[in-house]
Amino acid sequence: xxxxxxxxxxxxxxxxxxxxxxxxxxxxxxxxxxxxxxxxxxxxxxxxxxxxxxxxxxxxxxxxxxxxxxxxxxxxxxxxxxxxxxxxxxxxxxxxxxxxxxxxxxxxxxxxxxxxxxxxxxxxxxxxxxxxxxxxxxxxxxxxxxxxxxxxxxxxxxxxxxxxxxxxxxxxxxxxxxxxxxxxxxxxxxxxxxxxxxxxxxxxxxxxxxxxxxxxxxxxxxxxxxxxxxxxxxxxxxxxxxxxxxxxxxxxxxxxxxxxxxxxxxxxxxxxxxxxxxxxxxxxxxxxxxxxxxxxxxxxxxxxxxxxxxxxxxxxxxxxxxxxxxxxxxxxxxxxxxxxxxxxxxxxxxxxxxxxxxxxxxxxxxxxxxxxxxxxxx
Length: 378
Fold this sequence. Notes:
Elements: H1 3-15, H2 18-56, E1 60-64, E2 75-76, H3 77-84, E3 89-99, E4 113-117, H4 122-126, E5 131-134, E6 143-146, H5 148-153, E7 159-162, E8 165-173, E9 183-187, H6 188-194, E10 200-201, E11 203-208, H7 214-224, E12 228-231, H8 233-276, H9 278-286, H10 291-330, H11 340-366, H12 370-375
């Protein structure tokens, strides 16, 4: 038989028992749906981690001892001067992080942040991310660059309000799936004025001179500048890997349970199907059907079930993400990153699940003795 004939024959057998097939397809779909949701969350957090690692890959990060990243700690600009004097420092980039909406203290995910930075140093912190529109400049006091999530949540604004002042949106970054999506970049002097932090900053990025080991430079800065926390690249990467390992374990475990539940639905459905078609199988073998013919027939059915389950679960998962993501973005959160790689993995996994979960039922059907099968009466 040709492939098309196997598929047509398998489909005919499945629609003979519509309700049971529906239940099996639904079981697989639930597993795929869960896999898409958990996987897209894992993709999002992995992308966030990659963004952190890109920013810090060749930089030393400095903040106040009691804080980290944007937790509210304050450093004086005197710390910037002292850091710049340390041997091996090529450039220091002072930054002021502040919550965009300081009255909203509880958020799901990363908070929306205003980033005050010198216009000349913006590219050093942002990297090579492309713009969706506009130009990558904050060279005027009233200009701002915004991330994609903020752009979407405010319905494509041309102006944005920060601390009761309006800033013109000069550019919008493309969707990165990382930190930049929820950030607003304005000139450092403006951020200091608006948030009443004149002469103060929250963080310092340090770029080492060429050939200088950032790990060694971190130790020099720590011994030369008092009252600061110095984070070398390897320490940050270890923290990120540790956090990601825990998250990926939770996400992977949840997805695995869902997939196994789907596979169990397929196995049970196929075993019931075999028990009802024993006489039919016996007749086929009596008239010359080979073992591999019987196995192929049942493997085709199990594979069709999982492919239909994949389509239903993948479409459902994608639509759910499309519906929920705008709501989360409007609330200052972003959790999902449904990448093509994720859907390809779900499809390949569904095919493998269909084949593997159908192997035992198919083998059980294939090894039935024609004589014993034909003895059964209904």
